[in-house]
């Protein structure tokens, strides 16, 4: 009898107070109704699931608040806040979805062993390099978009080769899809991630990489379709970068270097312009591959693979002097 009364009281307590125990639901901002409709049309997302739509809407509103608050701080205190934010197509994504689809640098033991145990193939340091250099102004290589595939490593590896060929007056577009589909035997994981040095290992062993025209990008992993008669470029090897001086020298000599950064912070997703210096950005953990294509006395100019509408027409800047976002942890360049 006592047990029955206890269970009855417990049920009554949950019935009466259960609603109060639940976390209060944050109301939506009705003044953003039209903005939300425009955003969905622009990004081309839709669902019949009302709960899913509400989940997306709340993330969009949180992104909206973050951007406005940050930009207000930028306007009021530009000496402290050195970069602006803007709305991007990632505003509805969860952190997990964003990292899975928009990053993709997966450091492996093989890559770490190679970097630590290697002997430099050539002297890269150039004491006569200029104080400022920008490959964008010299070589019109369009920024591309990795889409919903964690293939940033393939885009980074390809761009470094394309810039180096451009410095030799050869404007060639190469296939990222070739790396995504075919470099898995060397440790890469297709759209689930990989590293640039393992992509180069494949390219060396394979004796080349196909042109983009003959092996177009699909943003999906598929069977390897490499064809010998459509080779767009070959490389002899690759080497790593250890410090800022070497990085500047390699950019000046070759046009671009492939590096890894931490891209997990929300502020990076909505970056618009300026020198990105979020103190939360890790200088240890890296998960996204980019290219460094220039430098100033205060910053490195970087190229992303999220299309030309992100950032400064697809580019961004990182400050010098503190290994910001882990930029110097893993940098590699091809040798043609």
What report would you give on this structure?
This protein is an alpha+beta fold. It folds into 2 domains: 25-81, no CATH class; 95-335, Cathepsin B, Chain A (Alpha-Beta Complex). It is built from 10 helices and 11 strands. Strand 8 and strand 9 form a beta hairpin. The chain is globular and about 60 Å long.
What is the element layout, followed by pairings?
Blueprint: H1 2-21, H2 33-43, H3 50-76, E1 83-85, H4 95-102, H5 109-117, E2 133-134, H6 152-167, H7 176-182, H8 196-206, E3 209-210, E4 231-233, E5 237-241, H9 244-254, E6 257-261, H10 266-269, E7 271-274, E8 288-295, E9 299-303, E10 315-319, E11 331-335
Antiparallel strand pairs: 1-7, 2-8, 3-4, 5-11, 6-8, 6-11, 8-9, 9-10
Helix pairs in contact: 6-7, 6-8
Helix-strand topology string: HHHEHHEHHHEEEHEHEEEEE
Helix run count: 10
Named CATH architecture of the largest domain: Alpha-Beta Complex
Average of pLDDT: 91
> What's the domain count?
2
Name the features.
336 residues, alpha+beta, Cathepsin B, Chain A, 2 domains, 7-stranded antiparallel beta sheet, two-stranded antiparallel ribbon, 10 helices, 14% strand
Question: Summary?
Answer:
The chain has 336 residues and is α+β, with helices and mostly antiparallel strands. It has helices spanning 2-21, 33-43, 50-76, 95-102, 109-117, 152-167, 176-182, 196-206, 244-254, 266-269; strands at residues 83-85, 133-134, 209-210, 231-233, 237-241, 257-261, 271-274, 288-295, 299-303, 315-319, 331-335.
């Amino acid at each position: 009898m006592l047990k029955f009364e206890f269970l009855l009281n417990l049920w009554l307590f949950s019935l009466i107070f259960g609603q109060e125990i639940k976390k209060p639901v944050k109301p939506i901002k009705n003044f953003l109704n039209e903005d939300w409709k425009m955003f969905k049309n622009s990004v081309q997302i839709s669902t019949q699931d009302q709960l899913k739509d509400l989940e997306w809407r709340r993330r969009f509103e949180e992104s909206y608040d973050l951007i406005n608050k940050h930009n207000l701080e930028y306007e009021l205190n530009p000496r402290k806040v050195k970069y602006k934010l803007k709305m991007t197509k990632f505003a509805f994504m969860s952190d997990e979805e964003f990292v899975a689809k928009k990053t993709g640098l997966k450091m492996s033991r093989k890559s770490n062993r190679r970097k630590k145990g290697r002997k430099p193939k050539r002297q890269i340091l150039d004491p006569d390099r200029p104080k400022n250099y920008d490959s964008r102004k010299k070589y019109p290589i369009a920024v591309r978009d990795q889409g919903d595939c964690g293939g940033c490593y393939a885009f980074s590896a390809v761009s470094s080769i394309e810039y180096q060929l451009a410095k030799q007056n050869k404007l060639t577009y190469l296939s990222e899809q070739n790396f995504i589909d075919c470099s898995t035997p060397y440790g890469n994981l297709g759209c689930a991630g990989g590293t640039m040095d393992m992509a180069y290992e494949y390219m060396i062993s394979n004796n080349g990489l196909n042109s983009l025209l003959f092996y177009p990008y699909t943003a999906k992993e598929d069977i390897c379709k490499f064809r010998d008669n459509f080779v767009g470029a070959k490389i002899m090897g690759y080497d790593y970068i250890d410090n800022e001086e070497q990085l500047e020298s390699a950019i000046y000599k070759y046009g671009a270097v492939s590096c890894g950064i931490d891209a997990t912070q929300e502020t990076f997703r909505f970056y618009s312009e300026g020198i990105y210096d979020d103190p939360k950005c890790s200088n240890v953990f890296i998960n996204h591959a980019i290219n460094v294509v220039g430098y100033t006395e205060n910053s490195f100019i970087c190229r992303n693979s999220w299309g030309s509408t992100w950032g400064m027409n697809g580019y961004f800047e990182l400050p010098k002097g503190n290994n910001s976002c882990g930029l110097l942890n893993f940098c590699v360049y091809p040798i043609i």
